[in-house]
Amino acid sequence: MVTLTAVVGALGQKGHGECWVWQRDNDRVICVDAGRTLHVGVAGGRHRPQILILSHDDHDHIGGAVDLIRAAGVSLEQLWVPVEWAILIKHLADAPDVDLLPDDLPQTPPRIETLVATQLVAAEDSGDHVATYGVELHDLLVAAETTLADLAAERDREGPPEASSEGVWRRWYGAASRQEIVDRVRKRATRLIAILGEACRRSLTIRYFSIDLALRVGAKRSWLTAGIPGRVTIANANEAPFWQAVQIPPGIPYTYALSRLTVQNRRALSTLLWSHSRDTTQAVIVWSDSDGNWLNTLSPRGFTHVAGSLLASSAPHHASDNAAHARVWQELAGAPQRMVMICAGGQGNQPYAAEYLVLASRRSCTRCRGHATPCQQVTAHGGTGAGLTLQPPCAASH
């Protein structure tokens, strides 16, 4: 028996995010994402998961994370997150030693994605990882919080940017001003520090995953190996144990760029949940908000085989009619007729993708549940041989 449950806030609340709960027989419980609100996080935590996977830092996916960790109590053992979170915290912790808001900016910002990827790959391949040890995450979080306090004071610095800087800020990942940069960094980093800090206080094992490592030449098949093979793996990322080796040049624009990386859909972790310990032919996948472009590299290595045997799938990007996620739907076109799909959350005025609508009785969404309770949920459950049953089925004609 396997069970996949989607939990979201009540329709009409700002609780439209995703929280997924997976259990196979009497094995470990896995949670993927934590929704947006306290209610959703607590509901997920009450399933007593052993592993919590946070795919990316959109607020509707992590807003309830601290509450989920607390509600799970002593049952929770591990937290899996994108490696960019840790690199951003590390960079903020180092920031007091550098100028937070440099006056001189390059006319063309360097590609921070390439910089991070190159250093991660080099650290993974070098065999010399001394630079990755010696600093505990807790200490980095404390130092990063100090930097954020400095940024709060710095944002009120008098006077506009010098005329020579006009237009340059916008080239730094679309920032229109210094204040916009500082506000974005503070907002995102504060959330991540709260989550990672709670994990540290509860002595959770924190594991970091990088899509760049998975996409490098010669990488292993991540969907098969990254995580806990036979139970839960990250389909589009490899583990990055040596993230502390990454060095980012000083200056807040780089920090701002890193904060953008933490939320990019291209870097949203996609989770593969195994129905059998050594067999991917009856798996379940949670795409989160991934745009699926990583499939262009990983599918030829075997992920198409997985898609062709799925028992269930989350609806890509809340089943929205968004062309950015067409690559995921393309992969799902090869799924078997037995596959069921759950749409967790989504905006109330959001049009559904045509690929979702044609599933008819094989789909269900949390959006058409009632308003009476703080949380809504849909479950797919059953024996793997006969496929999974949706409960409840869609309550609306959409």
Can you offer a commentary on this structure?
This protein has 398 residues and is an alpha/beta fold. It has 2 domains: 164 residues, no CATH class; 179 residues, no CATH class. The protein is 34% helix and 16% strand. The chain contains 15 helices and 16 strands. The strands form 2 sheets. Strands 9-6-5-4-3-2-1-15-16 form a 9-stranded mixed β-sheet. Strands 7-8-10-11-12-13-14 form a 7-stranded mixed β-sheet. A hairpin with a 4-residue loop joins strand 2 and strand 3. About 1% of the residues have low confidence.
Q: Descriptors for this entry?
A:
single chain, 398 residues, alpha/beta, 2 domains, 7-stranded mixed beta sheet, 34% helix, globular
Task: Describe what is shown at a glance.
The chain contains 15 helices and 16 strands. It is α/β, with parallel strands linked by helices and 398 residues long.
SSE layout and pairings?
Elements (H helix, E strand, L loop, with lengths): L1 E8 L10 E5 L4 E4 L5 H8 L5 E3 L5 H4 L2 H8 L5 E5 H12 L17 H15 L10 H18 L13 H4 L6 H24 L3 E6 H5 L6 H4 L1 E2 L3 E3 L3 E2 L12 H12 L7 E3 L10 E3 L8 H4 L4 H5 L4 E3 L11 H7 L7 E4 L10 H4 L5 E3 L9 E8 L6 E3 L7
Parallel strand pairs: 3-4, 4-5, 5-6, 11-12, 12-13, 13-14
Antiparallel strand pairs: 1-2, 1-15, 2-3, 6-9, 7-8, 8-10, 10-11, 15-16
Helix pairs in contact: 1-3, 3-8, 4-6, 4-11, 6-8, 8-11
Count the DSSP helices. Answer: 15
Distance, first to last CA: 30 Å
**Helical content band:** 25-40%
Specify the biggest β-sheet: 9 strands, mixed
Strand numbers in spatial order across the main sheet: 9-6-5-4-3-2-1-15-16
The general outline is globular
The average pLDDT is 83
Strand content: 15-25%
Low-confidence stretches: 130-134
Q: State the domain count.
A: 2
Q: Give the number of DSSP strands.
A: 16
| Helical/strand content category | alpha/beta
- Give the C-alpha Rg: 21 Å
